[in-house]
Amino acid sequence: MLRDITLGQYYPVDSPIHRLDPRTKIVLTIVYIVAVFFGKGLLGYLPTLLFLLLIIKLSGVPFTMMLKSLRPLRILLIFTFVLNLFFISSGEVLFRWRFIQITKDGLSHALRFSLRLIFLVLGTSLMTLTTPPVALTDGLESLCSPLKKIGFPAHEMAMMMTIALRFIPTLIEEADKIMKAQSARGADFSSGSVTSRARAMIPLLVPLFISAFRRAGDLAFAMEARCYRGGEGRTRLHILKFRKGDAVAFVITGLLIPVTIFAGRLL
Amino acid sequence: MKKQAELRMENLSFKYEGAEGFAVKNVDLTIEKGSFTTVLGHNGSGKSTLAKLINGLFLPTQGKVFVDGMDTQDEQHTWDVRARAGVVFQNPDNQIVATVVKDDVAFGLENIGVPHEQMEARIEEALGAVDMLDFIDRAPHMLSGGQKQRVAIAGIMAMKPAALILDEVTSMLDPKGRKEVFDTVRRLNKQRGITVVWITHFMEEAALSDRVLVMHRGEIRMDGTPREVFANGDALRSLRLDVPPMALLAQELVRRGIDIREDILSLDEMEREVVAKWRLNCKM
What we know:
The complex is a heterodimer.
Chain A: H1 16-19, H2 22-38, H3 41-44, H4 46-59, H5 63-68, H6 74-87, E1 93-97, E2 100-103, H7 104-130, H8 133-144, H9 154-184, H10 194-225, H11 244-266
Antiparallel strand pairs in A: 1-2
Chain B: E1 5-14, E2 24-32, E3 36-40, H1 47-54, E4 62-67, E5 70-71, H2 78-84, E6 85-88, H3 101-111, H4 116-129, H5 145-157, E7 163-167, H6 175-192, E8 195-200, H7 203-207, E9 211-216, E10 219-224, H8 226-230, H9 233-238, H10 245-255, H11 267-283
Parallel strand pairs in B: 3-8, 3-9, 6-7, 7-8
Antiparallel strand pairs in B: 1-2, 1-4, 4-5, 9-10
Helix pairs in contact in B: 3-4, 3-5, 4-5, 5-6
């Protein structure tokens, strides 16, 4: 069951969105998030919705894939919607039954907050769906490199992310193996109260940690054996380049903020 | 013609910090350019420590190690030494850095500052040399153990080393992966003249090399061709090592008074010898 987790959630097809420079995608995702927060009233979300539909279409990622990224959030979404719906008591009353009442303000708040969450998740997962993890770490390193002057370890951070990504499947496999070994000797991971299940995890976590440390030691030797000595003087296999498409993406996404503010005013 | 030395150890000793005894003791050794040397020894015999001493991951407590004439203790040469004598380790999972085969092979090239324009060609060349070019865009965790280990070898080969030191690289593999990796390294040695130091505890692999060294408690106890070393079954057993099955059979037959060559190593040789002896008997 643990084997199902894939490395990141990259969806490998060729599309104009996939071809964008990872730095462009990281910066524009931030711009997009800002735009989502500027949205006022339901009309204010219309430009965001259109923009989102456009890039999903362009990216070639199937819509069902996108919806999958919302699944882990379903409980949070339901909570946001229900709480806003029932606990805002200002405004015109639409419905009342004993102590439950739904007001116009409550309904619009509930819709807006849920939509905002959905937009945020869809937009950011579109970035991870269209950018391979390696490109993402390369992009982050390049974006953070000006901060090196004030002592920010940009290269080290990117290297750590790459290694973390690389070892996720390895450690999952190992956890799986340890779990089976413990189960074979009568350990029970799936029944009992929350505390007893948590306690059952200790014999899983201790060997996993020990082996992670051993792996770290081995990896350090292997990296040094291949002449690794930090970010100084390194050349790169992947060189990031801005192309025409990146300029177009910047202009379109840049326009999203003023358009959103304007649409919000119309209401 | 005097052969060129690639790796040279002079009175080399090494002690781990805080340890009582020496892990490697008084090793004097010259490994010739283009040779295939196997180092045998049971656990804790110091053979893995020797691997890390050769490329300067560990520095000698006493004595010296030279790689192509460069002293590993000389800080000026640290990175040249490591690029010339590449080490591949036991666990394939713990030496692959990147999430894509291509990026992993590039790792060493990026570290030694190879220009971007040359990288693609060198990566493809290295993956071709270990017969893994078809897997260039795969994720390492989807490969078999033998394939992962060949990717790790390609990562070193891309840096164009003169010597490869392989520290028990087959011990975590299944028989098929073991053969894949051994054959690959043997081929790199024969076709490209790469000096190989093959550390193992599998006798079958040692039987196929040019020279066998046996380590015990940090010292080199036996040194010779596989035939010379394996013919000395009693000495090997006293160092807690086994003789390859066919060599053992030959020695046992000789002991029982049967006229047969004593230095047989493989099943093929045994078959030939037995058939030859049988024909001889038929004629008489």
